[in-house]
Amino acid sequence: MHEMSLTRSMVGIIEGQAATHGFQRVSRVRLEIGELSCVDPEALTFCFDAATRDTVAEGATLAILTVPGQAWCRDCDMAVPIGQRGEPCPRCGDYRLQIRAGDEIRIKDLEVD
Amino acid sequence: MCVTCGCGDATGQATTIDGRAMAGHHHHHHPETPGDTRLIRLEQDLLGKNNTLAAANRRLFRDRETFVVNLVSSPGSGKTSLLVRTAEDLKARFPVAVIEGDQQTSLDAQRLRDAGVPAVQINTGRVCHLDAHMIGHAVEDLDFSSRGVLFIENVGNLVCPAEFDLGEDHKVVVMSVTEGEDKPLKYPHMFAAADLMLLNKIDLLPHVSFDVERCTESARRANPDIDVIELSATTGAGLPRWYDWIARGVGRVTAASDQEDSVLHADG
Asked: Predicted ipTM?
């Protein structure tokens, strides 16, 4: 359940922003989670409700945007889409792929008042 | 609870180092000021804080000329037995120290201290992985000499430790022939994060149905560049290759440091 650690880290970032920008309440947090990352959106949402209690983000909506996975295939010499780690290149079937995108775990933005 | 790293947790999940509470951060409460609804763009990595602390650990390890290996595996792979034997066999060649991570008990660190190896125990409480902040505090309590190797034995878990950089040179994943050979495909993040897979307990191969080639192929699907060493911590088979891998790492770290020194001296 490293989602709890990630959620605490998220609350830390949000509280830091509240100190800088002086807002009282967060109404929406948008996250970008890569589909190849090791994060379960459902677990993250569950932890978010617990971790934001008594903070400026209590009651905020958590919106999760999925970033598609992309890898570089050495054989095809081009970027190819992949849905999971350990999957072959959809063009040539080779497994020697380098992940280029899809492992993000990022706060995109905050909607605050 | 410390919201940035989970230390000083008020809910009884506090991480301890050798049984003592880890130093926490100070929490500030800021006055609220009213404003309109607006959007604040962040584009900030949730692991950013951990990564910053990991970079600080890495600088410390470079200053101390220490090669650092983060050992990860599922529970029961024989990681601790392998580590005890490795530390005993290598301590005459160069300094060896260990940071042990477990949810509870200091049994593993004690096992290493009994073997004459400096060791510090991190108990993570309910946390399922070590993070860079815990390591930063643990090294304060660990007397490790330079020009050697520091092993970090992570919590037995093939999922969560994959995401957390501790400032190590390499993650090394330990797997044993008593596990399923498809494990690298079931837990691909960990095998993708590791540079070396140690296939342990090969002395048991005659007694189990385990296809070494299929396991290696699974690991390479998750990570085409992963190295594989087959070994047995019980019989000692394959250990020289593992020790050479470590010695090369120690050599790289000390050579880089010597080169830096000579540049500094040349600059005057």
From this structure: 0.86
